[in-house]
Amino acid sequence: MVSFVDEVVLHLRAGHGGDGCVSVRREKFKPLAGPDGGNGGDGGDIVLVADPQTTTLLGYHRRPHRTSPNGQPGQGDNRAGSTGELVELPVPVGTVVKDPDGTELVDLSVPGMRFVVGPGGQGGLGNAALSTTKRKAPGFALLGTLGFEGDVVLELKTMADVAFVGYPSAGKSSLIAAMSAAKPKIADYPFTTLHPNLGVVQAGDARFTVADVPGLIEGASEGKGLGLEFLRHVERCSALLHVIDCATLEPGRDPLSDFEVIRAELAAYPVPEGQVPLLERPQLVALNKIDVPEGRELAEFVRPEFEAQGMQVFEISTVSHEGLRELGYALGAIVEQERREAAVEDEKPRIVLRPKAVDESDFVVKVEGGTYGPVYRVVGGKPERWVMQTDFANDEAVGFLADRLARLGVEDALVRAGAVAGSTVVIGVGQGVVFDWEPTLTSTAELVTAPRGTDARLDENRRASRAERRAEYYERMDAKAEARAELQREREAGLWTEDPAADDTTASEGQE
Question: Is 238 annotated as contributing to ligand binding?
Answer without folding.
Answer: no
